[in-house]
Amino acid sequence: ETNRISMESLLADHPPVPSTALSYGTSGYRTGSLDLLKSVAVRMGAFLVYRGCLKASPEDADGDGGGSTTVHVGAIITASHNPPGDNGIKLVDTDGCMLHARWLATVSDFASAASLGRWIDGPAAGPVRAVRCVYLHVGMDTRPSSPILCRALEAGAVAAATQLNDVAVRIVRHGKIPTPIVHYGVAESAMNAPSLRRKYVDQLVGGYVGLLSSLPSPPSTEAAVSRPVLTVDCAMGVGSMLLPDLVETLDRHAEACPNLPICRLELTNIVCGDGDADKLNVRCGSDFVQKGQRAPHVYNGRTERTTSGRARGLSLGCSLDGDSDRIVFYAHGGNGDVDRDGGMPFTLLDGDKISSLLASFVRQELSVLSSPPCRPLSVAVVQTAYANDASAAYLRSLDVTTECTATGVMHLHHAASKYDVGIYFESNGHGTVLFSQIFHELVRSRRDSETRRQTVARKRLAALARIMNPSVGDALSDLLAVMGVLHLGGNGAAAVGRWDGMYRDRPTRQRQVRVGDRSVVMTNATETRVTSPSILQRVLDLESKALVRRGVGGAGLPPRCFVRPSGTEDAVRVYAEAGTQKDADELCARAAAAVYGICGGLGEAPS
Q1: What separation in angstroms does the CA of 275 have from each of 45, 270, 278, 577?
Q2: Catalytic: which of 27, 57, 80, 391?
Q3: Tens digit of each residue's pLDDT (9 = 90 or more) over 31-41
Q4: What is the value of pTM for the model shown?
Q5: Which residue of 231, 267, 548, 568 could cross-link 30, Cys pair, CB 3.0 to 4.6 Å?
Q6: Which element (helix H / strand E) includes 46?
Q7: Cβ distance 152 to 38 under 8 Å?
Q8: Residue 80 catalytic?
């Protein structure tokens, strides 16, 4: 049990953090300073109790008018894809989703407050009496500092509940676990962490097997079909803690259903002990693969590479990030670009390609169900400025609506929820698919005049909805959705080739420029243009036009670049896209140099 320490003593031992030192970004708090994070963790524990208690208040837009006496909230100690020395805190709202935007100002006030009496025992504390018990779900990644921050957060929660007198807090400790499972636990109001893991895996695999069950039966039901192999890079992160359960469950279903092409997962970069903590996201993981456009280094587990540096045929792999809420795929062999490290063909299948694959599948199956009396359902893919222009053009060719938002799944998730089927993936592989109540009613309702193909379409869509995580991006959910949809269209290299062949990505390049204060850069709502300092946008426009004057950029698609402040650190992100890799590299370098010179760059100047 967490020791009960008075809130006053806790706050005295953990001084407040100035709002200018650390802010709650698109992925929560994140920094390399353990002292700063400990102070924030104490206050976030108190905030989550406060937030949970307001769930039942009539004043809360999410409330149920005072009819609930228990509520669930959550926190994950993780820095996701960041280096091992960093850590962070992500908060889970009462519905299992990321913390809603309207709470961000209050979070910032908590983090920088010397006293919390204003919320916990002041006038604002009145409505909290409606709740009697707050269940706080706590999970963490594999970083050495994670247990320390977990204890600080729990201490803050217990102290806040003690000060409220008639509010109890119950800690649901998930231990080292992927971020999406903590979200799932809050959404399911779970009280037992081990049983929740089994329920989660069974639900995902059940949906995946249901999707494959719609395939026509092979001529001979006695002969087992070949199982597609997927190499999974766990990034030396918490995916290692759950993927063995997923492997075992898939193998068990494959044995029971030998006529289904149930995938076989080959795990690499698995955490084997505390000594592996310094390898987290280092030369592996989704961020390394997506930004570097190269295969991950393999620390342990099976690898498809041979000593000659060539792959045996076409092999499919994927990389998770440190807390398993992102995933990107890649193929070795075939006609892909040359891998910078191994000298063999390498094809990146990022978040844009995942969106396109799922959107194409959903559009195809809904078209089968669109005959009267069913009304057409709205299908949209929500993207950020990082989405490749070629992907947006392809989606429009499918008659799929596209919408651009600011970077950060908080913005994408909100926009996607407006559609009957809202698909969102950042290029880095963070995303999911949301389904409306009308969609669920459609796939549950069988019509008397329904054809066999319509029955198949309805069951396929229902299975996909069962796989997808409705609360947050989920690498394991996305893994099974992609493998299921991919192999409905055939097995092996041909299926991967068709997926990659949906469109050809325009060459891109990304860089990061460290600055003294990221707040000096301000952008428009979609982060596609700089509003301040205005001279920076004028320079970016001139550099892009210079490439146009040279006659480059590709037919109908001019080169483009944009910059935006990081949501978690004092840095500015730079993105460039052009008709050739050489031009994308040059445009990115020139844009980075402009940021460095105009915005107070630190360290060595970009070359």
Answers
A1: 29, 12, 7, 39
A2: 80
A3: 889 999 999 99
A4: 0.90
A5: 568
A6: helix 34-53
A7: yes
A8: yes
